[in-house]
């Protein structure tokens, strides 16, 4: 049973990774008219989704990248005037600027349309089930990572 669970988890990780890479490709067309890479655009959206802001370490965890990579993305986004950092002791809480929020809103319709076309092979019910399962998967992985960080 454990061996089967391990095999399924491995195959699921492979599928999720492949889907992530393909979604990056789909979004490439949407961000092509901006100075951002797809990863930077996603980072900007992730930062905007957390009203209290995120530290660079939090951003790295949310994106599945190292703290150093998250720091480099944050530095570039700050350099473009899309993100500001509010220092709190040793940590810097990152927030999109008004310019960053406007860029997200500019990209959102095109991104939503491209992603909707990508998911058009699924029924609406399947899309809803997939959404729920992905949310549960993310929550489970976050809990696992939080537990292993202790």
Largest sheet: 2 strands, antiparallel
CATH architecture of the largest domain: Orthogonal Bundle
Beta-sheet strand percentage? 5-15%
Give the number of domains. Answer: 2
Task: Tell me the span between the first and last alpha carbons.
Answer: 28 Å
Which strand order spans the largest sheet, edge to edge or round the barrel? Answer: 1-2
Text of the CATH class of the largest domain: Mainly Alpha
In the predicted model, the low-confidence regions spanning at least 5 consecutive residues are none
| Number of separate helices | 6
Overall geometry comes to globular
CATH-level-4 superfamily name of the largest domain: Winged helix-like DNA-binding domain superfamily/Winged helix DNA-binding domain
Order of helices and strands: HHHHEEHH
Global mean pLDDT: 90
3D architecture notes:
The protein has a two-stranded antiparallel sheet. Helix content is 72%, strand content 8%. It has two domains: 2-118, Arc Repressor Mutant, subunit A, CATH 1.10.10.10; 122-150. The mean pLDDT is 90. The chain has six helices and two strands. With 150 residues, it is mainly alpha-helical.
